[in-house]
Amino acid sequence: MPYRLQFRGLAPLGWIFAVLFCVTLAVGCGDNVEFRNPFDKEKKQPVAKQATSAGTSTKKQEEKKEEVDKEALARQQMIKTTTLRGSGTSRFNGGRSVGANATVGDNVFRLAKEIENSVDFAPTMIVWVIDSTVSAGEMREDWANAAKKIYGEFEKQGLPGGRSADDLSTAIVSFGEKTNFVLEEPTSDFQEVIAAIDQIPTDDSGKEKTFATIDQVFDKYGDLKKQQRRELLVVVVTDEAGDDWMDVDTLVDKAGSIGVRVYAIGLPAPMGRQVAEVPPAERRSDGFPAMVQGPETRFPQRVNMKFSAGGFGGADVDSGYGPFGLSYLAYQTRGEFLTSRLRSAAWPGSAPRFEDSVMRKYPPQYLSAAKYQAMLSENKALAGLNRAATQREVEAMTYPASQFKAGDEARLKTALDGAQRTAARLEPLVNAVYDPLAEGEKDRDKIQDKRWQASYDLAMGRAAANKARVDGYNQMLAILKGGRKFEDPSHDTWKLEPADTLDEAGSRLEKMRLQAKEYLERVIQEHPDTPWAYLAERELEMPIGWKWVEY
């Protein structure tokens, strides 16, 4: 019989054996057994079961992966958001407190676990870099109490895993205007460390050369790390962002060459602001802000406009993240920024804050200055937001002149001229914010990042709303100045009241009013339970238009 016919004759038996073999494997092994090619260089992870659909595409899978990666980044840098005093509440969810309590001591004990893990891996050197300014007094005290307990336990119990005390060496550095090496030579004598903790001097200059001090620490202890073949951990304890945070890119490069992990224990940054509205806890005489605690992004991404609506709430908002410089340095060195809430500090106090699970989806972009600028150059909307957010503060049009008595034409004209001067003073300030945003509007739909989308839409909505109010106020006064008849002859007084219309002021201003409303409502709908939605709601508390009412 020809060979081909012999093969065909045996084929049915081969198929039967193959099927029985597969069934045996499927029944006997179960779902948890993984088969892999023994020649594969790396072990592949088991693939989770998932339903397939015709609408699923590779592009969507890549977008989902990018979102997960961003959430992982945010989770690493996320700030716990509950004040110890309990006065701060979330703007949403019925005003209940959110997040988890975190004192300075809690975060020091958390870092003790990192220290133990590092020592278990290899001999380790830790350098504590402590803010010695007046405002950081409470942080220093809490750090000192927790650190003494940790080193006291190391003295009594020894290091984990039976490691020798020589496997952990400690140095202490303080800073303010100048750097002070409190415990300069790293020591493994835990009692010596405990004694040095109480020797940190107080600096009353109000200046914080944070990054200059970190630079000196890298230079001094980086070489020693290599000589002794130790892991190097640097922990910064401070309540501010640092006067010299703009030097962070240089430090990121240097940290990479040394091989150091940087951790920071600090306060949350006010959203989109360098300085919170609360009174500072210290003073300085060089013209710089006394307490620089933000922003959470490399440059502010929030326009500086006061709210026209009344009420007791300020503009401060808890960003949910630490100041950019320290957070960026920690992220790039595989460290972490840990936020504490102090018992007596005014900031963040009762500033609104938002669920961690929500804010995790809006992480800042931890980019170098060069990459940040490149991103701005590629999108006119982002560049416009960057320009608008750096403009002077725009005052609120809270109590403009609104009541005008007819009869004496000369007096009426004088009153109207005076009222128009209010609009004339605010107009260039509003335009400086609105114009760059409007110029970049055509690139708005190209923005992919959720934080940038929310930030641009909020800025555009607020700028358009304020421009519509100011220009509309001026135009309504001009209409009255040109002559306006009372519908009721017994009336002799005109009153300009806020209203959701600018039809009488003209189609251009009515279109701008609708533009503002559209942007603000989009923020509320697309970014619910976020600081951006909260600020959009506040802007909409005040009607964007005006109407004349006669009495």
UniProtKB/TrEMBL annotation:
Gene3D superfamilies the record matches: von Willebrand factor, type A domain
Residue ranges, annotated region (Disordered): 42-72
Domain VWFA positions: 125-267
Residue spans of biased composition, Basic and acidic residues class: 59-72
SUPFAM superfamilies: vWA-like
Domain of life of the native organism: Bacteria
InterPro entries hit by this protein: VWF_A (IPR002035), vWFA_dom_sf (IPR036465)
Protein name listed in UniProt: VWFA domain-containing protein
Organism phylogeny: Bacteria, Pseudomonadati, Planctomycetota, Planctomycetia, Pirellulales
